[in-house]
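Input chain follows. Return structure tokens only.
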Amino acid sequence: MIKNVALRFYIFAFILGAGLVCSSCGTVCNPAGGSGTGTAAVIGRTGGADAGQPHALLTPAQASSTCPVGGGGGSNCSSTQTPNEVLYTLDGLGNVIVYAIDSNGNLTLTCTKATAATSGVLAVSTPQAATNFLYVLDTSKAQIFGFIISHGKTVTLTPVNGSPFQFTDATIDPFSFIETDPLGRFVFVTDFTGGQIHVFKIQAGAGSLTEAAGSPFTDIGNPNYLAVSNNGNFAYAPDPVAGDIFILSISATGTLTPTSASPFLISSGPNDSPHFDAVSANGNFLYTADAGSVSGFTIDSSTGNLALIPGSTIDTSVFSVSPSLFAIDSTGAFMYAADSSTDTNNTGILGFSLDSTTGAISAGQVQGSPFDGTNIISWLASNPAGPQLFVLSEPGSKATGLDINRFGITLSSGALTAPTSPSTLSGAFNIAIANVQ
């Protein structure tokens, strides 16, 4: 039952953030703000006999209401920001919008915007790459938009030559996710129902994409999200249906090959169904959100094999939390797991301490946990340069888009400080952060 709840949330989160389908398609509100008014879209199903009807997991929006449109380039944006970091998300019109992050983790909407996709999911190429790129997966048209991220404290985005890049398949699963490897060589796209993963090679310095020979790679269960080892040699694809993790070796050309230890069953417990995973900053550990638990594993850097860290499958159902997402803070000392429940009993955010030497997850929560997640949470991202956690959650009063809330992190204890006022900033399904120094 826990597995079904978590999987249902994953579908909910994607539909909510993926640009949505409207049953009376007027002007879709731009969640970034700006000036003017427009008709809000009704969140609806995408196909079948009930196409256009409100999705069962969502509270139907009003069919006709007014809300702000505009955003990047509008009257509420700034053209004078020179940040060290920026946060990317999408608006309701298919534009990438850019928020400047100041030294205290505060966000300011800039006037930079770039045309991409209303059903996009974002990923930033790694800081270790010589040139950084932003990629936006367009699930509706089976293509990826690429942008060059400018540096020198500017927020300019320049389309990569040849963008958008097409998949070899005519269509891709609407529940797909995009990730890059730490060496800046590849872009990976999971296909949940197709049981496959697409791999694109990144042209160094240029950012153009070419699908790797043999892609998509099949017989990989039902890959949900994907994490890559710090040395770029292995990918870890959780399968929430079977309750295991596929361990895939990555060749120099992008070929994915299951290792002899794949698939790795994380546990036989009823609450252990891995959805989301991430590698620790030091590269020694893999963590998973398992619908009814969170787990930690050691990584063998030479073989990619996983081993459960003793005592580090923490049953979160005792806290009434069903996590399918988490974030690790910039110091690597704390994990924040989001309650994926779609009902009114949503608990919020559970905080745990992490042992940097052993990778163990503390059995007890950090001080003050669970923290109010300000409605159903779609995405979590920690600030790589500071003690802040950005939380993308279901909106309070807006007709479309998701609220971006900034939580402060107390480094001595891991406690979160909630925002003092409701969010005025919004975005779509996920957010990505880049250094632009």
